[in-house]
Amino acid sequence: MGETSTGVKGHVARPALTFLGGAGTVTGSKFLIETHETRVLLECGLFQGGRELRRRNWEPFPLPASAIDAVVLTHAHLDHCGYLPALARQGFAGPVFATGYTAELAEIVLRDSARLLAEEAEHANSYGWSKHHPALPLYTEADVDRAVRLITPVDPGQAAIIAPHITLTLHHAGHILGSAWARLEFTGGRRSSTLACSGDLGRAAHRLLRPPDTFSGADVLLVESTYGNREHADEQARQAFADTITRTLGRGGSVIIPSFAVDRTEVILRTLRELRQADQIPQSPVLIDSPMALAALSVYQKAIAARSGELRPEIIADGTEALDPGGLQELRTPAESMTANRPVRPSVIVSASGMATGGRVLHHLRHLLPDSRNTVLIVGFAAEGTRARDLSEGARTIKIHGEYVPVRAEIIQADAFSAHADADDILCWLTGAPEPAATYVVHGEPSAAAALRDRLDHELGWTAAVPALGERVTIRARKLRHCSSRSTVTEHNEEPKVGSARTPRATARRCSTCSKCVMARPGSAPMMGNLA
Ligand SMILES: [Zn+2]
Ligand SMILES: [Zn+2]
Asked: Which residues are found with C-beta within 5 Å of the ion, ligand 1?
């Protein structure tokens, strides 16, 4: 404290922002914000995916964990909260600010993560593939205990002072239950400034959650770009989902849906209910086979019972039935799980993990893939190198638990349930807000991030950049100047909408906070350099 990593002791400099993760990749979101008196870590995500990415979780944290004063989490997915127990293990003991539902779901997700890390270490020790002897997990259940004790719920929409001269407001993001986009205000310097982070942005088409709260503007914006180069085709995918279930049950087979435990399972249940009510699919048992999914389901049920404002009105109106498709069976114990390997009746089986990289779904695939009556229905993004991706690309055999299993079942990919905004959704969310001084495109593969950056530039005329891992920039307020002639003002809302040809860059536009000013287009002043 008192000295920033710029090395200027006591000088009231602008806050600085360093991209410690979620830059150049989807996972590992960690954004370090430093003022002259405080350090706040916005997001504390785990790197996930290939070995190269996961290795980054083991790199030394670039500053002592105890030097961080507070953490802010946007939501409970591992790529946003999964490093928290590692940070606590290294000595971080400050408050962790998140919504109440994020606090509940993060505990479920982090305990499952600790269990998986322990299994991975055990496997490495049994087969000798780790360089470390013995291999240790990144963190343990005890570290999770330490981390969850630090979580301090804050109410969405309510400003909370989280550190000296730093105020946080969390706004509904509509991605999963509890998810938020965050707005931080820094008041310590000569001029106050603001930073907003989209977290993972939900979609107007989410079947359970209300669309995200409108983006109200900020001096600096971090925006996700998971689907920065894609558009969802919901209706076709939903039809393919319904047709696949009808066809498979009709020939006496079962449908296996590898699914993420949090939110995806709930959205599948809701969709099954709607399709059954509309008589678009036949009745059958629906087996939910994942202890984590069942724990998350009870948090969603609780939110429905509490009539949470995050939920769509039709979900609240449906009450506790909202997620019940009929014929629901909850498989909790390993013995119950084994019944799904050979279902007595043709069934819909929803089981983790979502990309079939591990978990109970592997047992079901081993038993059900060799039978051509069955179908594997892949309903979400399947990363390269995962079994779900191999299946969707037509693999004839799949290796499970050391054995090759023939793929005779039908394989269908119907990306009907993405909880991420696509490029159009993001542009729509931003349209109407005043231009930030700088917009950083994060949480995306390089091609997706670059595509979104180009659209922000061409369609909104915004200064947008894709930051590099470790890059450091300053947070500065937008320049304001008084308007001499209102006729010169370019009103943002009058610009051509998404999908139009390149828009001429606006040189000035009306200020959102005061109707008498226009904002000049600011120059960006990135401060390059690695924090290592
Ligand atoms: Zn997420
Ligand atoms: Zn994410």
From this structure: 77, 200
Beta bridge partners of 39: 34
Indicate whether 88 and 124 sit together in one domain.
Answer: yes
Place of tokens 């009510």: 277
**pLDDT tens column, 2-54:** 344 433 334 457 899 999 999 999 999 999 999 999 999 999 999 987 778 88
Asked whether residue 244 falls in the same domain as residue 332, the answer is: yes
Q: In the numeric block, which tokens belong to residue 438?
A: 């700088």
Based on the domain organization, do 400 and 446 belong to the same domain? no
Do 140 and 273 fall within a single domain?
no
CA of 95 to the centre of ligand 2 (A): 22
CATH (domain of 314): 3.40.50.10890
Contact status, residue 476 vs residue 14, Cβ threshold 8 Å: yes
One domain, residues 138 and 242: no
Compute the distance from residue 265 Cα to the ligand 1 centre, in Å. 14
For the beta carbon of residue 397, count every other beta carbon within 10 angstroms: 12
Q: Which residues contact 128 (CB under 8 A, 6 or more apart)?
A: none
Confirm whether 136 is domain-assigned.
Answer: yes
Q: Between vectors from CA 10 to CA 8 and to CA 11, what angle results, nearest 5°?
A: 60
What's the 175 CA to ligand 1 centre distance in angstroms? 7
Q: Find the domain containing 489 and state its range.
A: 480-520
Q: Any idea which ligand is nearest the CA of 22?
A: 2
pTM of the full structure: 0.85
Q: Which ligand places an atom closest to the C-alpha of 80? A: 2
Q: How many domains does the chain have?
A: 3
